[in-house]
Amino acid sequence: MKVMQLLPELNSGGVERGTLEIARALIAGGHESLVVSNGGRMVTQLEAEGSTHLTLPVHKKALSSLWQIRPLRKLILQHRPDIVHVRSRVPAWLTHFALKGIPAHQRPHLITTVHGFYSINRYSQIMTQAEKVIAVSDSVVKYITDNYKNCPPEDIVRIYRGIDPNAFPHGYQPSAQWQNQTFKDFPELENKFLICLPGRITRLKGHETLIALVQQLQQHYPQLHAVVVGGADPKKAAYLKEMQDSIQAKGLSEKITFAGHRSDIREWLAFSDVVLSLSNQAETFGRTALEALSVGTPVIGWNRGGVAEILSHVYPQGLIAVDDQSALLSAVKKHIDAPKQVEPVNMFSLKDMCDQTLDLYQQLLN
């Protein structure tokens, strides 16, 4: 098979990671893998792993992007992929118009993956116009069937995102060296019950909820400490300051640590006693929650979106009613009073995701 994947850029993020994972699986299976994007820092890795990267500015939400229709059509005719797999809205529109100019019998098969709960409009509907539409969770299947009646249910294929269990092994513990360095950088974390809120600093991730939680728990549980693992975009500096001021005003500066942007997220997830998932909006999947559970750290999260699906399969006792602050409080108390065990995770694997995607490609060709 020859498969061409399209996405805006290759810098960082779940869509990008998924693209590289499928590219790697195609090469491992003896197939050909092409990726079209505006480039980015992950291109080097993509090419080192055997794929061909074709640079085309398919990333701008602007009318000027329409100039890319003809160059994209040329790439498709030149490389003749069996399948074109589109993962984002601008590339989906460009592909739609590029394929129109190719005689029907010469067109590749078209697949899309719906990675997000996009705003509901004609612009987003393009993601549901393909021979097969991959949804990354049941929540996304529901989003498509509720909002896009043009998409026949039998064309929607649910393929969960997956992680490599070898990268997040059950019972994993950070090295003594890592722990020593961490206690040196953050001495306030030593001998504490750590609750971790991973994710970028944005209003969506539930930091206010965390602050309120720590405020309620601190008197009864002096050993409790919260750590926020994730950086703030320069554009979010004002929000970060607002949060830090609020923490100071509440006298919680000694209780909440901001670790900043980290590349050692696995270590932080394994090192924490509990990981929280408190996003104000449903997430389509919830990879970080899955990574925490995979290493054996309990996750407590709102019962919505992809995180709820993962918890209901892997750690149902971590599920709490959306925005129910008292349920959150009592769930965290229970975990402090009696540490809980997480069973090894035996679903949501990267191998399953790749196998199911390649099977779908094969089905279309047959």
UniProtKB/TrEMBL annotation:
One of its GO terms (biological process) is carbohydrate derivative metabolic process. Residues 13-166 form the Glycosyltransferase subfamily 4-like N-terminal domain. GO terms for molecular function: glycosyltransferase activity. Residues 182-340 form the Glycosyl transferase family domain. Keywords: Transferase. Gene3D superfamilies: Glycogen Phosphorylase B. InterPro entries: Glyco_trans_1, Glyco_trans_4-like_N. It holds the Pfam family Glycos_transf_1. PANTHER family: GLYCOSYLTRANSFERASE, SPORE COAT PROTEIN SA. This is Glycosyl transferase. It comes from Acinetobacter pragensis.
